[in-house]
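Reader question, answered in our methods column.
A reader sent in the components of a multi-part assembly and asked whether the whole thing could be modeled at once rather than chain by chain. We filled in our standard form and ran it. Here is what they sent:
COMPLEX SIZE: three components
ENTRIES:
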Amino acid sequence: MKILVAISNVPDTTTKIQFTDGDTKFNSQGVTFVINPYDEWYALVRALELKEANLAEKVTLIHVGLVDSEATIRKGLSLGADDAVRINAEGPDAFFVAEQIANYAKANSYELVLVGKETINYNGSSVGAIVAGLMDLPFISLATKLELAGTKATIEHDVDGGVQIVECDLPLVISCAKGMAEQRIPNMRGIMAARTKPLTVIEGSGSSALTSVKSYALNPGRTTCKMITEDNLDELVSLLHTEAKVI
Amino acid sequence: MSGQILDTQVGMSFQLSENQVAIADMIRKFGKDHIYPKMMEWDESQEFPVDVFKKLGDLGLMGVLVPTEYGGSGFGYTEYVTAITELGSICGSIALSMAAHNSLCTGHILQFGNEEQKKKYLPKLASAEWIGAWGLTEANTGSDALRMKCVAKQDGDHWILNGTKNWITHGISGDVAVVLARTGELLDSHGITAFIVERTTPGFKGGKKENKLGMRASETAELIFDNCKIHKSQVLGNVGDGFVQAMKVLDGGRISIAALSLGIAKGALTASIKYSKERQQFGQPISNFQAIAFKLADMATEFEAAELLTFQAADMKNKGKKMTKESAIAKYYASEVAVRVSTEAVQIFGGYGYTKDFPVEKFYRDSKLCTIGEGTSEIQKLVIAREILKD
Amino acid sequence: MSVLVYTEVSKGRVKKSSLECVNYAANIAKQMGTSVTAIVNNAEAAHIEELGKAGANKILTVKNEKINSDSVLITAMIEQAAKAEGSKVVIFAFDVTGKAAAPRLSAKLKAGLVAGAIDLPVINGNTFEVKKNVFSGKANATYVIHSDIKIISLLPNSFPVQLSGGAATTSDLTIDLPASRIIVKETRSNSSGGMIPLPEAELVVSAGRGLKGPENWKIVEDLANSLGATTACSRPVADMHWRPHHEHVGQTGVAIRPNLYIAIGISGAIQHLAGVNGSKTIVVINNDKEAPFFKSADYGIVGDAFSILPKLTEAVKKFKAHQN
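And here is the structure of the entire assembly that came back:
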């Protein structure tokens, strides 16, 4: 059983977001890129755990992006993935990215595709479900636990207002959320090995863009904070009613 | 060449490699969880946290330069410098212990051990299953190593070792030590031999543990040899080669102390920049005052100069070039910078800098070891002068 | 050609996010000169009436007990409805269901999707321009949907619900369901104690490490009860198991945008802010006047939560009593 883990290359969470080229592009100048935390901490680490428990033979990373994301891919390899595939294309949207992943997973008979629940840059929560749709596979979203017994997966996942435990036979696509696994750090051997593990580059193919970004804008921050003293809480309640109009 | 060098670039490069960035990131994450929360406690009680070393071993930081076939990480000196610097920017003591283990004991066996010795000891040392110590200095012979009193006398297939070594990192906790002892005439540079001595060898024990100003979580103690009988298979290289070997080991060791110094300077500088932007006086952040901003500018300039010198020495070592002068310059300059930067950091923090609630007082105490250990600044100057005055 | 809206009934009522979607769809339909069709499974008369008031012209009612949380089934239902209606625009809420079903429908119909829209689309001929938040709320992006069929999932609490008082026609829809491969073994609802679930809550009272221990949460709950708010917490609090994980808001937890977010004893790390800075109004209570959260707040109180909270609860109760 082979697991395909889709990883995204995203700005570190502490990045100050800026745009360039007339607000049509993210300004990556001086930005540290990391593996999307949900992809790394939950999807990838759980896949590695399953492999270490001899429940999977191989963990492959897949990333849709240009050559400058290879450092991020190697971070994933340094954590323990066996090999990686980079689909050489700058995906205009989630559909394009998902299509590349679905094509590769189908052609190479991956039985389990894991993705993070969302990326911290585009926050669309869409790639996993589109991959499942294109492959005609079941999709389980927001998984917080995943166990395997042979070809049967038992998954705990968040549903509207609660938690559900489901069973499903592979093949399957799962989006992973907090709880799936504990965060790991690589070791020196992993960092060294990442340099020699196979990183295959395949040219992107597929549909023309269904959507594209026209422009970006920063959301305005709050300008002033009105300070209220502890003895004036009636005033706060009144401001929330009359000024903010929220109660 | 010991390390497996992956980045072979033509020309000069002043950029960190992807591996260096990954190693620094790994250490920052490890330090946040496993060192930061406890380091002031260890400092206070002078506890040497053995479990942290085992974890550093799991990460591959205890055999950075050891080739993978001996269980090491197989990196070169530039990655090694990055690792020590990053660890040193968190806690000098832990970085010092790591540097001593890698450069001295492990480094000596790696450079001068025969195949059998390497197979026997390197995997244990690289994984931190065993912690290593290295004994050259004695109570009365610090810089003046040729006058050492510790002697080894041949007795059939064995050597009998007698004497005491001082200021030895991991003197008590070390599972194995490389010890330099006189096997020839006083002051003869070919009259000294290196031996591998295991902790369990009868007649070998740890002695007094030093109560130090800084680097308090790093164990510094005596090694005592009392008719300690060592088989001749434990001799490193040839009899009489010990002093020459030790000088070469120290050439590499100087790079590690330079890296440690960089780490302390980096930690103190980073803390100072952050604090001076947060701390308000006279209604504004103190970084707005030129008195503070110029201090920071000097600290940053000196730090970066020291960093370039250290990477220069590391790069030469990687390329197998003689770098006695360059490593001495790097060690001398970086260690003095560590002391100056951490002193200024305490000044920037003012009263808070003098308390244990902020990290700079520890950087200040830890920094001083760097101008003393593995050759004082004065000895470095001697080495540098000798090299530049040579015909 | 009508605008199709997927709606849900949960715990005996039409979900608020569904009503928002119907309202949103009505606005789009008006721009396009067409009508709104809502699809709903297992609805009763009162629900249908409510959907009509929110702006649905026609309601496709499905009676199918087999449809569960499996997005394969939900998507199949909507796909068949969209085909039956000839819909070129499909609207979902960007909630648990919408996050799984909208992208799947996008795959099935090769339709462009904007997931998490925060505003009405600008319609230019056959393209839609839709705004959504990106970079975890720090910025927004205007997307252009080029495809013939367009799917939008709407971020909850970003579009106000207005009930106009219209009435909808109903039509039963029989759907042909594929076999579900997912076997549901157990479903547990979060013990939110009758509170509105976090993603839908308009008022949220959230506390962090400053509360010092789980035993001190009574004063937080009291304040939440007085306001009719839902309780939430910061990441360290959930990690230390002081509070259940489903209460964790922030970048790695639930991202919310209520009308009012009261943060107590939370310093305001950037990862926390990313999950809450879409809130309309933020009140920060912290004993550290340097806490970075004050920079992102509308109202701030510096002081001890243990003395402030009971007083604030009293002030709210007094206000409420006066209101009635």
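What stands out: Chain C touches chain B at residues 290 (CB under 8 Å). The first strand of chain C starts at residue 3 and ends at 7.
Send us your own complexes using the same form.
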